[in-house]
Amino acid sequence: MKNIVLLGATGSIGDSCLNVIRQNKQHFRLFAIGLESNLDKAQKIAEEFHPEYIFVAKSHNDKSHDLFQSYPNILCTEDELQGLIQDINVDIVISAISGFAGLKASYFAIDAGKTILVANKESIVAAGDILMPLAKITNSKIIPVDSEHNAIHQCFPPERDLKEISKIMITASGGPFREKTFQDLSSVTLQDALKHPTWNMGTKITIDSATLVNKCLELIEAHYLFQIPESQIEIVVHPQSIIHSMVTFIDGSTIAQMSNPNMEVPIANALGLDQRLPINFEPINFLGLNLSFEPIADGREVIFEMAREVCNKKGNLGVIFNASNEIAVDAFINKSIEFVDIYKVIQRTFDHFSCSKVSSLDDIFEYDKQARIQAEKVIKSLH
């Protein structure tokens, strides 16, 4: 029986994790959940799974809520979060927190040598230079949960020799604007951007998918997780979202991981570690299958050039790229900028900084702060 801490329990990834745990109660116990502000949903989860601890972000405490009256072990501070994650009884930490906000939790888990299931790609993008070396020191297992990197993990287990790989191909659905020219994007709305053709995800990641920044983040994450040069990572549009990633080996063989779009599939694989877990899933209808592949649409090249620069130079560039995107997406959601302005904010913020080495988590947070301030300045300059 493995004890799990699920952070981001009330989000879309959290829902999928709970479904997998629900179907495999003989293997897993939900030891604790963490959330930002959805207290109503947290209470429903607690009533079903009876976690020993519940972490609620301090800024969102509502002590009058029934959750605080019903459950005595509610934690709210960063120190309490660290103590929870590093508790000797915890076997697996699932980081399903959205955005840069998940970095501290990822750091706490890796620092304690825990097995961490990462659905929070932003922490790897922003702090890969800190987290990956730390994981080697503490023997922490970092297992990717998002469909693309979990697919690579399945095609190429960590015990294999990297020299066997010729190329990794990460697929992209293309988002809702796959067939639009870059010029067409000037008229799209928030509602348009949230209409993802194949996946049901949270708001921020859905916008990232529409801009294709999500694939940039995934490229950087793959570089760090699998220690593969960016020159060996290719992004290809695959509208059906059946093949999630492919690995081509030096002997000419290519292995692909396939499933219908369903986040429970990679989560079950990650939770199972060395064994396959049973879940309810819709099998692929191979007789009715029609797979297609396309290059990335014109006009989006600049963001991929920045992502590859992050991979090659590292340092502070990952946190700057991520922070500028988070500020730009938030501004778009709040209708402060247009969709195409997201690209301008990222590029102008990124170009403002030179590459510098980072040696601590404090460095990461400082550059994150500086990048956000600069991105806000860029937004103001657009008006």
Provide an overview of this structure:
The chain is α/β, with parallel strands linked by helices and 383 residues long. The protein folds into two domains: 2-144, Rossmann fold; 160-256 and 297-381, Orthogonal Bundle (Rna Polymerase Sigma Factor, Chain: A). 44% of the residues lie in helices and 15% in strands. The protein contains 15 helices and eleven strands. The protein has helices at residues 12-22, 39-49, 66-70, 78-85, 103-111, 121-138, 147-155, 190-193, 203-211, 213-226, 264-272, 301-313, 317-333, 341-352, 361-381; strands at 2-7, 28-35, 53-56, 74-75, 92-95, 115-118, 142-144, 165-172, 233-237, 243-249, 254-258. Helix 2 links the parallel strand 2 and strand 3. The model has no long low-confidence stretch (mean pLDDT 94).
Output mean pLDDT: 94
Biggest β-sheet: count, sense, barrel? 7 strands, parallel
**Multimeric organization:** single chain
Give the DSSP E fraction (strand runs of 2 or more residues): 5-15%
CATH superfamily of the largest domain: RNA polymerase sigma factor, region 2, helix turn helix motif
Shape: globular
CATH architecture of the largest domain: Orthogonal Bundle
CATH class of the largest domain: Mainly Alpha
Domain count: 2
Short précis:
Helices cover 44% and strands 15% of the residues.
Task: Write out key terms for the chains shown.
single chain; 383 residues; alpha/beta; Rossmann fold; four-stranded mixed sheet; 44% helix; globular
Secondary structure: elements and pairs:
Layout: E1 2-7, H1 12-22, E2 28-35, H2 39-49, E3 53-56, H3 66-70, E4 74-75, H4 78-85, E5 92-95, H5 103-111, E6 115-118, H6 121-138, E7 142-144, H7 147-155, E8 165-172, H8 190-193, H9 203-211, H10 213-226, E9 233-237, E10 243-249, E11 254-258, H11 264-272, H12 301-313, H13 317-333, H14 341-352, H15 361-381
Parallel strand pairs: 1-2, 1-5, 2-3, 3-4, 5-6, 6-7, 8-9
Antiparallel strand pairs: 8-10, 10-11
Helix pairs in contact: 5-6, 6-10, 6-13, 7-11, 10-12, 13-14, 13-15, 14-15
